[in-house]
Design brief:
The structure is a single chain. This protein has a single domain (2-352), classed as Metallo-beta-lactamase, Chain A (4-Layer Sandwich), CATH 3.60.15. Helix content is 35%, strand content 21%. It is built from ten helices and 15 strands. It has helices at residues 71-84, 100-103, 106-112, 121-130, 140-148, 153-164, 240-252, 271-296, 301-308, 315-334; strands at residues 30-33, 36-42, 49-57, 60-64, 90-94, 117-120, 177-179, 184-187, 190-197, 204-209, 214-218, 259-262, 268-269, 338-342, 348-352. Bound molecules: zinc ion (ZN). Zinc ion is lined by residues 97, 99, 200-201, 219. Residues 97, 99, 200-201, 219 line the site of zinc ion.
């Protein structure tokens, strides 16, 4: 019997669709479901915005993520509360993860509106640990991590000098309410279940409402750009890319027509096709890495980074790109496809395991 060609049904999640135009980054709120609102906070960088979400409860509001610690973002939050909260209080501030576009204003919001912070243990303590500039002088173990990866010492120093001048390094609230996997937050008549993801950050919280098929996804599932997944000196033997791909598979198991509310770009449907695209993207990166190792015989992570990201990078971008290259090499190494040797010159050299 002939199989009828499969048709992608609009709204079913068979393909990626963007049902809304984004709100303006000026305090405008856009309802994406009853009591669930999308707003945008501007960012002065290449990725020029972050999405934040507002959940209306019977007697107040919850917000998810904060935007950067900048005067303009604070102004916009004042305006949103004044214009849209109907005099009701901010009951809680939920941060999906510790990155400063997501949690950068948590201390200010918690203080200004007297609201508790909700965050996972992993994210909260990572935020506290990384608050403030890098230590001076840099610890030898940290420098060694980058040197072993093949990064020249002056580049390591340049990178951390830049990080020391970072203008967004935010303060943080001194207490928090811990979010855990599968915990349920009852907000606005909905049950929002905490779904933890790993790889982009240590214990990233998504919120899933099964009855209305809504997923507040943070950076765990973005519609077009890829979230960075990197290895750093803090956990040099980590395998975050494996954790990341496994986390994506857990999200792909949610209802196919789920409306995904991501932290960047547009609200979308089609989590399964998007997860498939992300798997394909990383499979391609693995192929590039393996082709490079085949040709070179052996290579450092820094050389592999040059192959994965051939354009000129700023010092901080270079650190992210190197971290991504190591994440791919580590994933291949843990799966047995690549091996790593510490050479006499103190460099880790990677080669195909044959
Ligand atoms: Zn992030």
């Amino acid at each position: 019997m002939m199989q009828a060609p499969t048709q992608a049904v609009p709204g079913s999640g068979d393909r990626i669709e963007f049902p809304f135009e984004p709100p303006r980054p000026d305090g405008e709120l856009l309802a994406v479901a009853p009591g669930v609102f999308w707003a945008r906070m501007p960012m002065p960088m290449q990725l020029d915005h972050i999405n934040v979400y507002l959940l209306r409860d019977s007697d107040g509001w919850f917000i998810v993520d904060t935007g950067l610690n900048l005067p303009r973002t604070r102004e916009l939050w004042e305006l949103v509360v004044e214009r849209h909260f109907d005099g009701l209080p901010l009951k809680g501030l939920i941060c999906t993860h510790f990155h400063y576009d997501h949690a950068g204003l948590s201390a200010w919001l918690a203080e200004r509106f007297d609201a508790p912070l909700y965050m996972t243990h992993g994210e909260y303590f990572t935020m506290r640990t990384l608050a403030g500039p890098p230590p001076e002088p840099l610890p030898e173990a940290l420098v060694r991590f980058y040197l072993r990866a093949g990064m020249p010492r002056p580049r390591v120093e340049e990178m951390f000098a830049k990080l020391r001048r970072d203008p967004f390094m935010p303060p943080h609230p001194t207490s928090f309410n811990r979010l855990r996997e599968a915990q349920v937050l009852r907000i606005g008549g909905r049950d929002w279940r905490v779904v933890i993801g790993e790889g982009h950050s240590p214990e990233h919280a998504c919120l899933y409402c099964a009855s209305d098929r809504l997923l507040i996804a943070g950076d765990q599932l973005l519609p077009r750009i890829t979230s960075n997944v990197l290895v750093s000196d803090i956990e040099p033997e980590a395998n975050p890319l494996r954790l990341w791909l496994d986390s994506l598979d857990r999200l792909a198991a949610l209802a196919p027509d789920t409306l995904v509310l991501p932290s960047h770009e547009r609200v979308f449907r089609g989590l399964r096709p998007r997860v498939a695209e992300l798997h394909a993207h990383h499979a391609e990166q693995f192929d590039i890495v393996c082709a490079h190792l085949r040709e070179a015989g052996a290579a450092t992570a820094f050389e592999t980074k040059g192959r994965l990201f051939p354009r000129q990078l700023s010092a901080v971008e270079d650190m992210m790109a190197l971290g991504e290259a190591i994440a791919h090499l580590s994933c291949l190494r843990y799966s047995g496809r690549v091996r790593r040797v510490l050479d006499d010159d103190g460099l880790y050299r990677f080669s195909l395991a044959n």
